[in-house]
Amino acid sequence: MPPEAEEIAEQVFVALADPSRRSLLAALAAGGPATATDLAGRLPITRQAIAKHLTLLADAGLVTAEPGERRRVRYRLRSAPMRVAQQFLAALARDWDGPLDALQAHLEKGAHDD
Fold this sequence. Notes:
By secondary structure, this protein is mainly α. The chain is about 70% helix and about 10% strand. It is built from five helices and two strands.
């Protein structure tokens, strides 16, 4: 996997590590684009904390900020970084499949030899 893809995947994993950020992503997925104030009305998180989390999510590329009416910024999900992270995990799983299959065969052979 190219180094830039690994960097994107790392940013996604860091962003997803926090339950509040996962809640924000879920709220945006369920309700569509929203402002920090809108999200504060839906979640048990302060508006200030939401703004901080949205900045980190935007830095990771998971959301994009769009100017709205009266200088209100609406946040919209971006799926591209998530797809990169999924591809990273899929490649990692493929790398593990061979050694894990060999280990399983070795263990099964050892169990039959007893």
